[in-house]
Amino acid sequence: MPEVIIFKPKSEIDAKQNIKDFIQFSQKLPALNEEMEYKSSSWKGVANFTKFGIPSQNKEVANQLDPSIMFFAKAYLTYSQTQARTKNPNEIKALRAIEAAMLISHGAVDITKINSAVLDNAAQVAREKLGTGAAYQCGSHLQKLQGFLVQKHMIPKFTWKNPNKRGVDVVEKVGEEGTANREKKLPDEDALLAIAEVCNLGEGNLANRDVFTTSAMPILLCAPARASELFYLSVDCLHYDKDSNNKPVMGYRWHSGKGFGYEVEWIPDVMNPVAKTVVKRLTEMSKQSREWAKKMETIVDAMNAGETPSFPRHATCPDVPTDSTPLTLVQVANAMGYANNSAKNPDDKTNVDGARAFLKTRGFTEKGWKATEKKYCLRDLIPKLIERLPKGFPYVQYKTGNDVKVKWSQALFSSHTNEFDLKKQTIETELWMPTINTLNEDLAKTKKKNKKSGELVNVSSIFERHNYPSSYVITSHQLRHMLSTIAKVNGMKEQVLTKWAGRAEGKHNRVYNHTTPRQYKEKAALIQKHKKILTNWAYENLK
């Protein structure tokens, strides 16, 4: 675990100096990710330093936080997120609220003048600008900010509590509202059965996208994991062992995205055959891309050692005698992964134009390059292939789970560019990994629109592709709620459920528990029945 770096103020009487020192201190901290630029008002993957209500795409200077708070805002967000990284940094809400409140009352932001009145106004701004839940979060972070400023001697000592009320808790609601909430969190049975039916068609009757969706969902039915964690799995993810009764058991070697680390997620016996089948399908589907990744690992290692490796042959690679044989424009494109239109001659104008466009997007910008002109050989293209490798290669670079180390050559969901596209040609020289969005976009009618026309794009969900009603909708996260509820209804202990679900804290289990009032009543009646039996037994045998 990385060492936590704490800011220690030097002065207890000079608040402005402490703020200045804090800003300088935070600027020296490591960046929150490799993609963000500290000087920018938009930190990719972290937050945008913009005023309340400004869309994330709007980068205009007038919509950025006021210069009087910008330096402190960046310092505070960096420091707070260094202490405890979160997916959605809500500190920015508090900073925006402070800015809005102080611009009205003071004309500029002066951190040393933050008091109860300023915080009250900031909390009110949050209530006006945000929904109930978000306003409560903003108020909580205002309270956290106030505590920080007092502790670091940046403002005088005083007490302030978040006045914004938490939203109505619907987790354990009864009646119509409770029923509606439970139904929203749990999957539609018809949609779930439809996926099972498609899965049973067999991989020989399924496109790669179908194999992906109908394999990913059964894995999520085996253990209550987050769907984003699916992509941490490697091809050797199945773990075999024996329980305390010497009975064979099977589980997934799983990595939790919320700090629980690597664990074996045990699979219910009834799901073992399904788990084996879908892992086998994914292993076979990813074989080609994993083999390509392995070839590229060898090539990168050779290049780093100063050696000259052979060009890796693949399906669209031109059949030439040696790596030094000159290539035509179309052959260069073929070597880089471009697939010819089989119905046309390789030198057909349509094919040449397609090859030219393909190469242009891959850094080949030579003007006046004639189709028959031979500018490159395979050996020249090796550096170009390396340039197309994903960032972080040979390891998959995940947006979350920074400590997860899985090589592309071992990743269960390793794929090629366009592999799931039913219209485009797969590019066998480029690696690609599906995401949680890839999965969820296939589980509902598309919402994507054409950027030019504004019309919905012609993309079918798995239900539409297999002639099920287009109204069928399911989300990957609903399975996590369903399994947690089943476990709770059947008496799984909190500690066991917490570990099985890979949760950092047991208190989060309640959010995933959608036991109905009727089930609670039946459970209570069963307990009373057993209690009565035990009481009678004790009376008869112990009197």
Structure description:
The protein is mainly alpha-helical. The protein has a domain at 15-151. 43% of the residues lie in helices and 6% in strands. The protein has 18 helices and 7 strands. The chain has helices at residues 15-27, 67-83, 91-105, 116-129, 132-151, 175-185, 189-199, 208-222, 272-285, 287-304, 329-335, 349-360, 378-387, 436-441, 462-465, 476-489, 494-500, 517-542; strands at residues 42-43, 47-48, 238-242, 248-256, 261-266, 415-417, 427-432. The protein has a 3-stranded antiparallel β-sheet with strand order 3-4-5, with helices on one face. The protein has a two-stranded antiparallel sheet with strand order 1-2. It has a two-stranded antiparallel ribbon with strand order 6-7. A hairpin with a 5-residue loop joins β3 (238-242) and β4 (248-256). The protein is globular. The protein starts with 14 loop residues before the first helix and ends with a helix.
Summary of the model, kept short:
With 543 residues, the protein is mainly alpha-helical. The protein has 18 helices and 7 strands.
Label this structure with key terms.
543 residues; mainly alpha; three-stranded antiparallel β-sheet; two-stranded antiparallel sheet; 6% strand
Strand content: 5-15%
Number of helices: 18
* Ends distance: 59 Å
- What is the chains' assembly state? single chain
Write the H/E string, N to C. HEEHHHHHHHEEEHHHHHEEHHHHH
Q: Which regions are unreliable across 5 or more consecutive residues at pLDDT < 50? A: 501-514, 539-543
Mean pLDDT: 84
Overall spatial form: globular
How would a crystallographer describe the biggest sheet? 3 strands, antiparallel
Count all strands and give the number.
Answer: 7
Portion in helices: 40-55%
Q: What spatial order of strands do you see in the largest sheet? A: 3-4-5
